Amino acid sequence: MNRTPEPPLATIAAAIRRERERLGISSAELARRAGIAKSTLSQLEAGTGNPSVETLWAIAVVAGVPFSALVEPPSSTVRVVRFADRPAIRSEEAAYTGALLSPCPPGARRDLHLATCEPGPPRAADAHSPGTVEHVVVSAGRWVIGPEGEEVELDPGDHLTFPADRPHSYRALTPGATAVMVMEYR
């Protein structure tokens, strides 16, 4: 049985509150800036919501922080992420799941993610923070990935780098498509 773990709700709730307070804005203002419902944000801050990749990215962009700042609890210097225990978050739009494998360490600005996807509608991603660059290495299956109008078909072992501060998308062409992604924040 292939079970996808639930997102780390308590960590997400605390991180959203922390970042909102750091910005000095109300829940209503953060929700407005992120383009999400105030009730959705309230549920997330209470640890009772069901966050999607799209919602968390929108909040991260507004807060000006890496995605990992919202989903990753503090950890020790030695860290193992077991496949069955990875903190996976599903997309609302497509058969796409993203899992943060390695958060941005102090002094650096990058996150490492594992993405899985099944054939079907693409997962459309809004532009990330200005200057963000995405690196994708396909580990299984075939994908079509890239900025709008510049999507590229990729096979296992292929590496793609593109500006992720523009709208972009991910689409699996074969079942079980898997890729490792490095988000580089500037």
Q: How many individual helices?
A: 5
Report on the biggest sheet.
6 strands, antiparallel
Average residue pLDDT: 87
Strand order of the largest sheet: 1-2-3-10-5-8
Shape: globular
Q: How much β-strand is present in the residues?
A: 25-35%
What's the architecture of the largest domain in CATH terms?
A: Sandwich
Low-pLDDT residue intervals, each spanning 5 or more residues: none
Count of the separate structural domains = 2
CATH topology of the largest domain: Jelly Rolls
Helix content: 25-40%
Total beta strands: 10
Query: What is the alpha-carbon Rg in Å?
Result: 16 Å
Give the helices and strands as they follow along the chain.
HHHHHEEEEEEEEEE
Fourth-tier CATH superfamily name of the largest domain: Jelly Rolls
Q: Based on helices, strands and strand pairing, what is the structural class?
A: alpha+beta
Instruction: Report the span from N to C terminus.
Output: 39 Å
CATH level 1 name of the largest domain: Mainly Beta
Tell me what the structure shows.
The chain is an alpha+beta fold. It folds into two domains: 9-71, lambda repressor-like DNA-binding domains (434 Repressor (Amino-terminal Domain), Orthogonal Bundle), CATH 1.10.260.40; 83-184, Jelly Rolls, CATH 2.60.120.10. Helices cover 25% and strands 30% of the residues. The chain has helices at 9-23, 27-34, 38-46, 53-63, 68-71; strands spanning 88-90, 96-102, 110-117, 123-125, 133-140, 143-147, 152-154, 159-163, 168-172, 177-184. Strands 1-2-3-10-5-8 form a six-stranded antiparallel beta sheet, with no helix packed on it. A four-stranded antiparallel beta sheet has the order 4-9-6-7, with no helix packed on it. A hairpin with a 7-residue loop joins strand 2 and strand 3. The longest helix is centred in the first third of the chain and has 15 residues, at 9-23. The protein starts with 8 loop residues before the first helix and ends with a strand.
